[in-house]
What does this fold into?
Amino acid sequence: MVIRIDIGNRVQLRKQHPCGSDEWVVERVGIDIGLRCEGCARRVLIPREDFFKRLKKIISVRIEDGEEGK
It folds into this structure.
């Protein structure tokens, strides 16, 4: 199964951040996944392989203009 991650998606990871939040916004996609914590706004880079191990669920997907039907 292939999971598509795009910039602007909100995701929930398995472990909480030290600030207490477990929700993150995807800010960069590449070899590393760049995330911003919803609780304290800290930014982190996680290797793609580790990100998919830590991913619990995708909370929301950003819808771009013209892609509503997809």
Notes: The chain has a mean pLDDT of 88. The helical segments are 48-54. The beta strands are 10-13, 23-29, 32-37, 43-47, 55-60. The two ends are 18 Å apart (CA to CA).
